[in-house]
Structures are given as structure tokens and as C-alpha cells.
Amino acid sequence: MSHAVPSKIDERYSRQVLFRGIGAEGQRKIDEARVAIVGCGATGSALAGLLARAGVGRLRIIDRDYVEPSNLQRQSLFDEADAAESLPKAVAATRKIATFNSQIVVEPKVGDLVPSNIEALLEGIDLILDGTDNFETRYLINDYAIERSRPWIYSAAVGSYAVTMNVLAGQTACLACLFPDSPHGMVETCETSGILNSVVNLVASIAATEALKLLVSLPNPGAEAPAKGGDFLAALKRCATQNHLRQTLLSFDVWTNEHAEISAAKPRPGCRACGKRDFIHLAGEGRPHITLCGRNSVQIHERQRPIDFAEMDRRLQPHGTVRHNDFVLKFWREPYEITLFPDGRAIINGTTDAAVARSLYARYVGS
Ligand SMILES: [Zn+2]
Q1: Which of 33, 54, 86, 284 is deepest in the core (most CB within 10 A)?
Q2: What is the mean pLDDT of residues 236-252?
Q3: pTM of the prediction?
């Protein structure tokens, strides 16, 4: 009597395959799937770690930032050596994943996801996950995902609060159904309001589980030409109804224990994105214009974000030197100098890279 020796891959995923929601067929689909994680900070790290261990066959990690010591409290794929070397997060994450799952393919993409490169960066992807820290990029992902009938999962966390929602094109509400416009005025960011690592892991665990439910329901994840149109929408519908996929905007605060669910089961009639199919963010119209200004400065032509200088001064105090009068606020954080105007316009001195400027703005002002 011969005993089949289980292959390494079988042994690795055996406990997950035993779970009846996954099974051998589900594991095969997970192995064939291609998932993009946009933004690899705290939430992106946790999502990438969970899905890499679960055996998602191809992960594309897109991030514009570099590892810093202040990331280590919550960004679980990075260590002190990565921060000392200021490695790009996408590269550091890929190296770390290779130490615990060398059987999957991880593609690091160091850069800012913008309208001009979204096509190339998300090509052939079955599912898009949100690890970003700003609405600008989320609206761009939403437009792309609706236009292409790709599923995506929105996740966000700040302080002790997190929120997440599955967006299935044409089946559920999209981000623009619930939030037609990006937030105006002062926005909380992890840099200015802080963040608990536990709320990040909670929201990432929920989103990663929804991702697995989706992947095991897709007709043929990883296919050269992913299913489109009617077949794909029908599959998403089956997936939503048969596979317990959540159809709400879920929010919770791990400190106050408040939680809420708002129905997101149906698209909002008249929604700009999924109703009228007016993809302004994909067309590059929904974002502030950015220009080079001077020898070593970038200007962000935002005008929709009235700034309370006294409050901004207070928030930025722990991070550098801040000065303001009624007309201008200046914030120095080596090697950058940020000049902020009352309508939200900013000049960032110390770089000519729009991605760096955008990242600094998202972290310290909010976008
Ligand atoms: Zn919509």
C-alpha cells in the first residue's frame, strides 16, 4: 500500500483547504488569482501579509513611499533594517514576503498610482485592495474599477476608527454612491491624529476575508482575458448572494466600541460613477493640478480644502517647526518646507517629484 506524499504546497495550505468555505477548488482559484494592493503602509502591509500567507498566486504591491522608523509601530511587513536603509515600501514588502512564502509571485511597483499609469499598473488584475491613505487615489481606483467591472475593496483607518466596503461594479453601491465628493476642509490623517495598530489589523482582517470570498467565487481568476460584461457581472452577483459577501459600509471604533453598518447593497440612482459613468477621476479632472515651481519646489493647486491655521499648527507641532499668520502657514520637516495657504494650496520645497509632494500633502494636510 503506497502513501501519496503530500506536496509542500498541500501541506502549507492544508488547514485553509480543510475550511469548507475554501476547499481544494477554492485554493486552486486563490493560487491562480492576481490581486493588486494599492498602498503598502499599515493596512496594505496587513492585507499583503494575510493574502501572501493564504497563497494568492500573484500579488502586485504598488506604493510611492519609503520605510521610516515611525512606520514600525503598525506596518507589519517592515523592520528596523528597512527603515535604516529607507527602502521603498513595495520592495521591502516583497523581500519580507519572500521569507515566508517563496512559492507565490510578488511584483513590487514603486510609484504613485495616477490616471496616466493606472491602466498599466492594474492590468490583468482580478481584485484591487485599498491600502491607500487618501481619497484622491480611492476615487481613481473607484472610477477604474467601475469602468472595467473589476471588484475592489475600500478600507481606511485613522485613530481607533476604521471603515471598509466591498464594491462590486453594477451590483453594490460604489464609493461615489456613498461619498459623492472628497471630504472638504480639515481631514484627519494618521500623521496628525495618530493610529492604533490594532484597528489596522482588524480592518485588514475583514477586508482580506472578503477578498478570499470573492476570489473563490470568480469564474476564472488569473485568466489571460479576465471575464467581462454579463458573465462577470452574473458571477459577481452569485458571489454576493451565495458567498456571504458583505454588502454594507462597515465602520467601527475599537476604543469606544461604537460600530455601524450602512446598507450598500444597491447602486445609488444618478451616481456620477456607476450611474452616469462619468469618470472624472480617471480622466484626471478630479485631482488638484501639480506643477513644478522654482528650482526645487512643487506646487499643489488645491482650492477645495479651507485650512484652519490654528488647528493645523497644533496638529503639526509634534512633527517639526510650524509658524503661521493669517495668510500663510509654514511647516519645516527636514529636508522639506511646506508652505500652506488658507484655501489648501501648497508649495512643497525640497523635491521636484510630484509623488513625494502628493505623499507629504496626504500625510500632513490630508487628501
Ligand atoms: Zn456609484
Answers
A1: 33
A2: 81
A3: 0.85
